[in-house]
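Researcher: Please predict.
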Amino acid sequence: MSAIEQSILRHAEEVEYMKELARQTAQQLLEDADVGEIIHDPEAFVERLLAVLLAELGPYARRLAEQAATYAEEVGLQELEAADIDRIADEAEMKFTSFATPALRDAVNAIVARIHDMAGAGVALTTIGSAVTSPAARAALIAPLLGAARRMVSSWIQFVDRDVNDTAIRMLAAADTQDDGSGDELQPLTLTWVAVMDRNTCGDDKDLVEHFCRPRHGLGKTLEEWTALGLPGSPVLECSIRSHRGASPCRCLLSTDERTAEITAPVSAGDAVKRGRDRAAADVATAKKFA
């Protein structure tokens, strides 16, 4: 296995580790959620939940931004300054707030609507009370909210990773096209697509380059050409289309590193993804044990 492929797999593991930590943290925050509070003032509950998520997960997002910047250098992209990393982390946080707010609000409103429907249908108050207080019934009631929160925080981490990578690509392309004073005509930088495949990555060798990742593996194009066709994580790609609400799960990358020629087939990241999730679950379990 080449050094660059090792970097790709190591980064895939770290991203998934951070995403799973974020999902587990969101789940812990909602395990003790007060359904009565949700029903009484749904909007205030969403605001409080978002504030806690931002406080708890902000450090994870910034840590991932730093790791993603290191990874970008390892695969031949532009080195980012600390100010660039901070800006990307801040913008990703705002992006998270903008898409998570309506998603969480919809999930909370669905809980309220269900309780109201039960009351309107003549369900006994004792039964409704059980739905609010019984652990099993309460878990079923808040399941949509938990699912929404887990998806949103995972997308936050994914946004950070993708935004760091995209920024490093654009900065490298811009630096490469600056006039060096020689008078020679500057040729646009060629970026090679490296497909990183797991169960969320799309396509096979027979699929269309326009909409799938796998057939793009090994293709070299300029940034302008890739932008027109769709960068990794682009909404035109099948893996992005499947993601519904939230960030694209696309793990592919563009690189100028000549070592990408050694990667003759798409990188299989399934095992790395599993290792990241397992590490996060183990760390959370250990933290609970000694809390």
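Model: DSSP finds nine helices and five strands in the chain.
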